[in-house]
Design brief:
about 15% strand, SAM-dependent_MTases_sf, 6694_t:CDS:1, globular, about 250 residues, 5-stranded parallel beta sheet
């Protein structure tokens, strides 16, 4: 049975979506890392109760799909469903999306003044009774070493300077309610230990370090230090995570 799969790429100059990685290959690697993290944490690719709809045939849209890792994998499991992916705002797409059953949205980094517009577009194309699945990761009650804490605080400060909500997870339900379109909001939090000594913990530590290395061209100037000094900080942070077993 054939699969209907369409991925659209669009150039966007509005910069509503911010991701501080300049190298395209590094960005794709970061997206692949996050995709695998979500699969491990949520034990699958689709968390919303839409499996029966997808089996019978539906229309699915992934927002910020990048190179389409998620929809490519899910399309194999649900051959009766049409899958579409856009790597920018729905408004920038030349597709007239409508009557979408399920929208998959990996929550990365959005500016405050455009995030509500994005949600408005999502609900415009989502059919009544349809599902929007927003997936994200966040850290809670973790104790870091001084160097990693410095990197983390720098990252948060840089985001705030870009007018980015650093607590989209905590504020997401409020954003959804502001649209006036969400009939109900369900949330599921899965607590996963991130530490040395287990495969998932080791993997997450490498993801954290890879992310900071990839963002060095943004964060080093923001910290008014050289790239070499920034690399030294990342190496020190790695030592802290390894020796103190803080994650």
């Amino acid at each position: 049975m054939s699969h209907h799969l369409q991925i659209k790429e669009h150039e966007s100059t509005s910069k509503e979506f911010i991701f501080p990685v300049e190298d395209e290959e590094e960005l794709n690697t970061t997206i692949l890392y996050m995709h695998n993290i979500y699969k491990l944490i949520f034990n699958g690719k689709v968390g919303a109760p839409v499996q029966e709809n997808l089996q019978n045939g539906a229309k699915v849209l992934e927002l910020c799909c990048e190179d389409g890792i998620w929809i490519t994998e899910v399309a194999v499991e649900y051959p009766n469903t049409e899958f579409y992916g856009v790597d920018s705002n729905i408004q920038n797409s030349d597709n007239n999306f409508n009557n979408v059953t399920f929208i998959e949205y990996k929550l990365y980094i959005w500016k405050k003044n455009t995030f509500l517009e994005v949600l408005s577009e999502i609900f415009r194309v989502l059919k009544p009774g349809g599902w929007l699945e927003v997936v994200c990761t966040f850290n809670t009650e973790l104790v870091y070493g001084p160097t990693y804490t410095r990197l983390r605080n720098t990252w948060d400060s840089w985001l705030k300077l870009q007018n980015i909500d650093t607590d989209l997870v905590g504020n997401l339900e409020n954003y959804l309610k502001q649209t006036g379109k969400a009939e109900s909001v369900l949330s599921r939090i899965i607590d996963s230990q991130i530490k040395r000594g287990c495969a998932f913990g080791e993997f997450m530590i490498e993801v954290f370090l890879f992310f900071y290395k990839s963002a060095r061209n943004y964060l080093a100037p923001f910290m008014t230090i050289s790239l070499e000094e920034f690399d030294d900080l990342v190496n020190k942070a790695k030592s802290e995570l390894s020796e103190d077993n803080r994650l």
